[in-house]
C-alpha cells in the first residue's frame, strides 16, 4: 500500500472553519464556547474536545497592506512522536496509515504526553465513572483512522472547499507541494514546506507562507535522546527483567512446594 499523507496548503485557506465543524461532527465532540477575547479566532488553541483550530495571525505585507495568515492547526502525526516516546504505558502508537493514536483502555491519564508534545496538541479530558469518581484520558486528532480503514478521507479534508486540505499518495502530494512552493515564492519569500526531518517527518505536512515560528511552530523539533533511550531500550529491558524476576519467583515457589511435599512424603516413610 502506498504511503498517504495529509497536506495543508495554508495559502489556500480562507479561514471558513468547515474543517473544525466536520471534525466535531464526525468525532462526536462537544461544543466548547469561549469568551470573546478581541480576536476573530474562534478558539484560543486545541483542547481535549477541539481537535483542530483555524488560527488567525495578522501580518503586514511588504507594501504596507494587511493580510491574515491562516493555519489549520491539528496533530502532525510525527514519524517519531513526542507523545508516544513519553507514554509510560503502550497507550500511544502508530497505525499502518502513519497516524498516531491513543488506546483509551491503556491510557492511565498521567499527562506525560501532554507535557512532552512540542506542538501542544495532545490534551487530557476528564470523565466521571458510574460511582462519581473522576478519571482522565489523553485525547487528540487520530487522522480519522476509522474512516481511513473504510477507504474514506479524513472528515476535515472532505469539508475543505478550497483544496487547502488534501489526502493523497505521499510522493504525489510532495511533488505537487514543491511546484506550489515555487509558484508562491514571489508573493511569500519565506514560504516553506514544513515536514521536520528531526522527527522523521510527519503524516500531516504543511506548506507555510512564512517561517514556522510565525505560526508558533518549532523550527527543528527533535525528540530528546533520553526519551528515545528510555522508551525504546530501557523500558523494554526493564519489562524483560521484571518478567525474568517474576518467572524466577514463580519457579522458586514451585520448587519450594515440590521440596516441601517431598520432605513430608519422606518424613512419612521414617515414621513407618
TrEMBL record:
GO terms for biological process: cellular respiration; formate oxidation. [4Fe-4S] cluster 1 binds at residues 13, 16, 19, 160. It is found in: Cell envelope. [4Fe-4S] cluster 2 binds at residues 23, 141, 144, 156. [4Fe-4S] cluster 4 binds at residues 87, 107, 110, 113. InterPro entries: 4Fe4S_Fe-S-bd, FDH_Electron_Transfer_Unit, Formate_DH_Fe-S_su. This is 4Fe-4S dicluster domain-containing protein. It comes from Cytobacillus dafuensis. The lineage of its organism: Bacteria, Bacillati, Bacillota, Bacilli, Bacillales.
Amino acid at each position: 500500500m502506498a504511503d498517504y499523507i495529509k497536506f495543508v496548503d495554508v495559502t489556500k485557506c480562507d479561514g471558513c472553519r468547515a474543517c473544525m465543524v466536520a471534525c466535531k461532527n464526525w468525532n462526536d465532540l462537544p461544543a466548547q464556547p469561549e469568551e470573546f477575547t478581541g480576536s476573530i479566532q474562534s478558539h484560543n488553541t486545541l483542547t481535549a474536545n477541539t481537535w483542530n483550530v483555524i488560527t488567525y495571525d495578522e501580518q503586514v505585507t511588504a507594501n504596507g497592506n494587511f493580510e491574515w495568515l491562516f493555519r489549520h492547526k491539528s496533530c502532525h502525526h510525527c514519524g517519531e512522536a513526542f507523545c508516544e516516546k513519553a507514554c509510560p504505558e503502550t497507550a500511544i502508537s502508530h497505525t499502518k496509515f502513519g497516524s498516531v493514536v491513543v488506546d483509551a483502555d491503556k491510557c492511565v491519564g498521567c499527562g506525560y504526553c501532554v507535557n512532552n508534545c512540542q506542538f501542544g496538541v495532545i490534551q487530557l479530558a476528564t470523565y466521571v465513572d458510574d460511582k462519581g469518581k473522576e478519571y482522565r484520558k489523553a485525547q487528540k486528532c487520530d487522522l480519522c483512522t476509522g474512516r481511513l480503514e473504510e477507504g474514506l478521507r479524513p472528515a476535515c479534508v472532505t469539508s475543505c472547499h478550497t483544496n487547502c486540505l488534501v489526502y493523497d499518495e505521499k510522493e504525489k502530494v510532495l511533488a505537487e507541494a514543491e511546484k506550489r512552493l515555487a509558484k508562491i515564492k514571489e508573493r511569500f519569500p519565506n514560504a516553506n514546506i514544513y515536514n521536520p526531518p528531526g522527527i522523521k517527518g510527519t503524516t500531516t505536512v504543511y506548506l507555510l507562507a512564512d517561517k514556522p515560528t510565525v505560526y508558533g511552530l518549532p523550527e527543528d523539533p527533535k525528540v530528546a535522546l533520553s526519551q528515545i533511550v528510555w522508551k525504546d531500550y530501557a523500558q523494554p529491558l526493564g519489562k524483560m527483567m521484571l518478567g525474568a524476576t517474576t518467572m524466577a519467583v514463580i519457579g522458586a515457589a514451585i520448587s519450594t512446594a515440590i521440596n516441601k511435599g517431598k520432605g513430608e512424603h519422606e518424613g512419612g516413610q521414617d515414621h513407618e
